[in-house]
Amino acid sequence: VGNSSVLTCPSKPSVMMVTWKISPKVGGRCTLGYRADTNETNRTNCSDSMNWKLTPERDPALEIRQVGIAHEGNYTCEVVATEGNFHKTYNLIVLVAGKPAAQVLWVLEGNSTPKEEVHDNGTVTVLSKFTAHSSNVTNTTCIVSHPAGNQSKSIAC
């Protein structure tokens, strides 16, 4: 989130046409197109955060600036060249704290019941309470696993 992402596309010496077809999980489709014979580019329904990295005749890569959850989805590049037609598809998944839901594990034996709260923006808050089986427990460790990074914390009881 917040960084730029570059999606490459097959680069051929004799490109006639390049089209990026973007299908986000949320919102409408968008396309970026380039025709070599007229040296024209066009865009349909694409936000300003998505554009050619350089110029499509030099490099057909797509740059997404300030990636956010709304950019998740399928990105397909189609290249028409004298050598044939070439396709490359990406499934863009954006990792942020809170998406996907974190996994919570307690080191000591006891009861824990994680509860998940799903928010409108697709993130999830996980709340886990630990109840020890005996009163001899003086501390425990909570381990949180997530694709964006793992953490562990010792907690005094």
Strand order, largest beta sheet: 4-3-2-7-8
Give me the CATH superfamily of the largest domain: Immunoglobulins
Q: Which CATH class of the largest domain is shown?
A: Mainly Beta
Approximate shape: elongated
Query: How many β-strand stretches?
Result: 15
Radius of gyration: 23 Å
How much strand? over 45%
Biggest sheet details: 5 strands, antiparallel
Pfam family, one: C2-set_2
GO molecular function: signaling receptor activity
Protein name: Cell surface glycoprotein CD200 receptor 1-A
Subcellular location: Membrane
Explain how this protein is built.
It is found in: Membrane. Its main location: membrane. This protein has 157 residues and is mostly beta strands. The protein folds into two domains: 88 residues, Immunoglobulins (Immunoglobulin-like), CATH 2.60.40; 54 residues, Immunoglobulins (Immunoglobulin-like), CATH 2.60.40. Helix content is 0%, strand content 50%. Strand 3 and strand 4 form a beta hairpin.
